[in-house]
Write a structure and sequence with these properties.
The complex is a heterodimer of chains A (112) and B (117).
Chain A (H helix, E strand, L loop, with lengths): L4 E3 L2 E5 L4 E6 L6 E7 L6 E6 L5 E4 L2 E5 L5 E6 L8 E10 L2 E6 L3 E6 L1
Parallel strand pairs in A: 2-11
Antiparallel strand pairs in A: 1-3, 3-8, 4-5, 4-9, 6-7, 7-8, 9-10, 9-11
Chain B lengths: L3 E4 L2 E4 L5 E7 L6 E7 L5 E8 L5 E2 L8 E7 L2 E6 L8 E8 L8 E3 L3 E5 L1
Classes of the chains: A mainly beta (112), B mainly beta (117).
């Protein structure tokens, strides 16, 4: 099935650094969602974006819904050890069609 | 909250047997649930859409007779892997949307790891 292009594929950073990752699509989505997945667990919803241009924060996380509706980015400020995991973007076509198309994932590792 | 729970979290079975995985929305009703499959270090791939009171909708390439889905109530969907084989070993994850909300975000269960010997 279709997948969204997510970059970078992996990141190795030091604690305290800021992180930025993005997701692009050839198709328009009307909702963008960002999830974090820890090993052996299901994804946990971090931020949901519903309008083009929308900028939303959740603590140290900030995400934006691109104006073209074909992209989104997620920033994490002042990273801490518990931020380690895999981050997935996901696009949703419409309210009546809730199927999610997932990004390829960004694996975040914090170097001690 | 919006809690989705899966059971079992881990299951090991012999080749040829069938395994049932349950997905429950604990604090909301869900007319639609989704079943995903995830291979190691890969993203989630949608298998099927589970609709309460009607037949599931399967994605292209997913065998409906192999992966039986039943959505008997507004809080429970089950995935049965029939005549399991080692290649069916995977991490299966369900998700659900809160039917009482006007936004479409999906909440995921903890996942069920199936190992077929």
């Amino acid at each position: 099935g279709q997948q969204l292009n997510q970059s970078p594929q992996s990141m190795f950073i030091q604690e305290g650094e800021d992180v930025s990752m993005n997701c692009t699509s050839s198709s328009i989505f009307n909702t963008w969602l960002w999830y974090k997945q820890d090993p052996g667990e299901g994804p946990v919803l971090l931020i949901a974006l519903y309008k083009a241009g929308e900028l939303t924060s959740n603590g140290r996380l900030t995400a934006q819904f691109g104006i073209t509706r074909k992209d989104s980015f997620l920033n994490i400020s002042a990273s801490i050890p518990s931020d380690v995991g895999i981050y997935f973007c996901a696009g949703q076509l419409s309210f009546g069609n809730e199927k999610l198309t997932f990004g390829t994932g960004t694996r975040l590792t914090i170097i001690p | 909250g919006a809690v989705v729970s899966q059971h079992p979290s881990r299951v090991i079975c012999k080749s040829g047997t069938s395994v049932k995985i349950e997905c429950r929305s604990l604090d909301f009703q869900a007319t639609t649930m989704f079943w995903y499959r995830q291979f190691p270090k890969k993203s989630l791939m949608l298998m099927a859409t589970s609709n309460e009171g009607s037949k599931a909708t399967y994605e292209q390439g997913v065998e409906k007779d192999k992966f039986l889905i039943n959505h008997a109530s507004l809080t429970l969907s089950t995935l049965t892997v029939t005549s399991a084989h080692p290649e069916d070993s995977s991490f299966y994850i369900c998700s659900a949307r809160n039917s009482g909300r006007t936004t479409g975000e999906l909440f995921f269960g903890e996942g069920s790891r199936l190992t077929v010997l």
